[in-house]
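Hey, I'm writing a tutorial for new members on how sequence and structure tokens pair up, and I'd like a real worked example in the thread rather than a made-up one. If someone can provide the structure for the chain below, I'll link this post from the tutorial.
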Amino acid sequence: MEKVRQVAMFCVGRAVFFGGFAISIVMLSFAFDFALSLRSGAMLTLVMSLILLWFAQTAQNRSPQSTETWILLADDRRPRNDHARKAFCEVMKGVYGFYAYYAVMISIGLFVASLGLDLFGIEVGLD
């Protein structure tokens, strides 16, 4: 199952990377107000973490054949019986949870930085 975990980390990590890239582009569009930029990044990262948590919660009900991880696995590594499919779903649940946890931590960090800028009245932005 370690190979499945590696492939799942790659697939989900790539999706999270592209989501993070989109979030950073939105944050860049608010560069005129740094606190607003951080706040928008925090909100979007929180939405991404909620989506990841939803995927983690519904991983048990999803067919392994409908995942990108299944497509990238070699034929001899794909789960064949019910026990292996349940283990595959558990791995996917863990991987989604791993990325959701770090997305929440990043979101909290962005919220705290935004709140710090607002509380101390620091005006950072493009003038």
